[in-house]
Amino acid sequence: MGKGGAAIPDEEWERFLREAEAGTHDAPEEPSAQARMVARRLRDESNRPEGWRTHQPALRSRGKGRYVVGLLIALGLLVVAVDPGRVVGWFGGGEIAPLAAESERPDQPPETAGSAQLPTVDEPFRGSPAARWGDGTAGIRLPAAQATGWMSKEQVAHALEQTRGFLVDSNLDPGVLRGERPRKAIALINPHQQDVQDYLATAFRAPSRENDPLLLFSRFAKTKVRLVGSVVKTRGRITYREGKRGALEVTTDVTYVYPVVRAAAGSDEVARTIVRREVVMSWDHPAKVVVAPGTFSVVSYKVDMTNGGCDTFTGYLTPEFAAERATKGSGGGPEVDPYDRSTSIDARTREADEARCGTASRS
């Protein structure tokens, strides 16, 4: 159906699903995720088709200071960095004017100005650009809806709301952040997308480099750390266009900042874990793709993580504190600013050294 077309009736939707299950010759296709991972072996073999969740080898380096630890993962890229001299405060107290919503990719990273200010339990975002970011969904820009592909304007608006709901259920839900299984988020993923379902089934049972729940979900082990307060700072945007076979293709690019302390009662040393995710999803035409109503198919996903665990695959984000950082030496990897949204995740990984982690300039 072309742009601005009418909605598919429920009866027709269900008919296509029944035909697909029965194996009729004109049944809709089953979707398969095509994660666009940046891997050197794919760059060297340009004629080779991209595989779903192609994985780049982990990169290692170690920081040299006492305060900031950055651990960058872009599906295999992990970064560690420490340098207290680079940890600077942007805001010196008082009311902080929030930034306007991000409508397009910025052309430069956030400024660094002022004296170094460490986060505290009362001010967990002090010394961070995130102090001016939105709280939760307030920092995720939702575009105006227009009829696109097989969907009407109203259907597009509903799909965009469900897309943002997926981001909440996978990155902001308090239970999921405490390590619970993200059942509500998983329920929004097309159950007929078998490769993704296989990944999900394995990731929570036996997390590994290839099957890591952190590729899509933010989770902390509640026996190790706990969030400071109830606010997660966010900055990012949701965009959409017409995709393959008339689908509504939605791209989300959001950075999440999580302040945490150790789980032990009375702990007051605050560390921050920064996660940037880009997830592309397809709200498919039910006449052309086997899809359960109200679900999307995963097209691709990418993730950067700072201070989330270096070369560890426990299924949980594992931030480091001063005691762990004191034992680390310098690895001299390429420097990365985890708050810099002016470059894509792909561009960041293309610049990485596959032999080592890079370094994060601030947390």
Structure description:
By secondary structure, the protein is of the alpha+beta class. The chain is built from eight helices and nine strands. Strand 4 (233-242) and strand 5 form a beta hairpin. The N and C termini lie far apart (47 Å).
What's the total count of β strands? 9
Sequence stretches where pLDDT stays below 50 over 5 or more residues? 1-6, 35-93
| Mean pLDDT level | 78
> How many structurally independent domains?
1
Find the structural class using helix and strand composition: alpha+beta
- Report the end-to-end length measured between terminal Cα atoms: 47 Å
- Oligomer designation: single chain
Taken in chain order, the helices and strands follow as HHEEHHHHEEEEEHEHE
- Per DSSP, the total helix count is 8
- Give the overall silhouette: globular
Largest sheet: 7 strands, mixed
Rg for CA atoms = 21 Å
Strand content: 15-25%
Short summary:
With 363 residues, the protein is of the alpha+beta class.
Task: List descriptors.
7-stranded mixed beta sheet; alpha+beta; 16% strand; disordered N terminus; globular; 363 residues; two-stranded parallel sheet; 9 strands
Task: Itemize the secondary structure elements and their pairings.
Layout: H1 10-22, H2 40-44, E1 134-135, E2 140-141, H3 153-171, H4 174-177, H5 183-187, H6 194-203, E3 225-227, E4 233-242, E5 248-262, E6 271-283, E7 297-306, H7 322-325, E8 335-336, H8 345-350, E9 359-360
Parallel strand pairs: 2-4, 8-9
Antiparallel strand pairs: 1-4, 3-5, 4-5, 5-6, 6-7
